[in-house]
Design goal:
It is a single chain. With 240 residues, this protein is an alpha/beta fold. Helix content is 22%, strand content 30%. The protein contains 4 helices and 13 strands. Strands 1, 2, 6, 7, 8, 9, 10, 11, 12 and 13 form a 10-stranded mixed sheet that branches. The longest helix is centred in the middle third of the chain and has 18 residues.
Length: 240
């Protein structure tokens, strides 16, 4: 764990299948000691993903965007432009094989980043992700601003977190996000924080280093370098 964590930020939209295939291979290489830990920030084209706990009835408009089965924990979620996805490939065997502590650190990372923009992110014991109170709309209302869904293979994590900077929030209407019908979805833009993806990516890195340790920049993999999606995946699943 003494080595710095590699950090990459792709400027262009990355197809979901290629990103997952890359993560699977990278996670195996990390577990084998052949590659360093990596955080990969990117945006996807509009799509829905179904986690290991997804219910079919929560996909309200199945023909709207491509739908992918994801090995991460959780239910349905949306990815698209304006939302930063941070794929987290860390070796928990070296950092401490405590999944609960790892998830708490991911939550802390997101909450710290939101605080930079004067947004009070909170967690709930009965709901996944990071939430904000919306008393400006109605008493007791809370909206989700960030999601967490991880998977482990030989104690190396992949998949990760997503943070809504300025996505099209109407795109979330095609699903029941994370299977929760009683709450809404928000973003930094929706909360009146007009900030760029680049600015939030910078703050994510700064706050990540406080929680997890130092990082070093590496080149982003080009689409031509990304492996095609594999047909079989035998990684273990951690649901959150």
């Amino acid at each position: 764990m003494g080595k710095t964590i590699e950090w990459s930020h792709s400027p262009d939209l990355v197809p979901y299948e290629l990103a997952v295939s890359f993560m699977e291979r990278r996670a195996r290489s990390i577990a084998q000691g052949k590659a360093r830990e990596l955080i990969w920030l990117l945006e996807h084209p509009p799509l829905y993903t179904a986690g290991t706990s997804a219910c079919d009835e929560d996909l309200l408009t199945p023909d709207r965007f491509p739908v992918y089965k994801a090995g991460r924990g959780g239910q349905y979620t949306y990815h698209g432009p304006g939302q930063i996805v941070a794929y987290v490939m860390l070796n928990l065997k070296e950092r401490g094989p405590d999944v609960r502590a790892f998830v708490r650190n991911l939550e802390d990372w997101l909450i710290r980043t939101l605080a930079v923009y004067q947004v009070a992110g909170e967690i709930r014991p009965d709901r996944v992700g990071v939430w904000v109170r919306r008393e400006d709309f109605s008493p007791g209302r809370e909206d989700k601003i960030a999601a967490i869904g991880i998977r482990l293979t030989k104690w190396v994590s992949f998949h990760g977190v997503s943070l809504n900077v300025a996505p099209n929030l109407e795109h979330f209407s095609g699903i029941v996000p994370c299977g929760i019908q009683s709450y809404g979805v928000t973003s930094l833009a929706d909360l009146g924080r007009s900030v760029s993806i680049e600015n939030v990516a910078h703050e994510l890195r700064r706050q990540f280093e406080i929680v997890f340790g130092p990082t070093t920049s590496v080149a982003t993999p080009s689409l031509s370098q990304l492996p095609q999606a594999e047909q079989k995946d035998e990684t273990s699943i951690q649901t959150r």
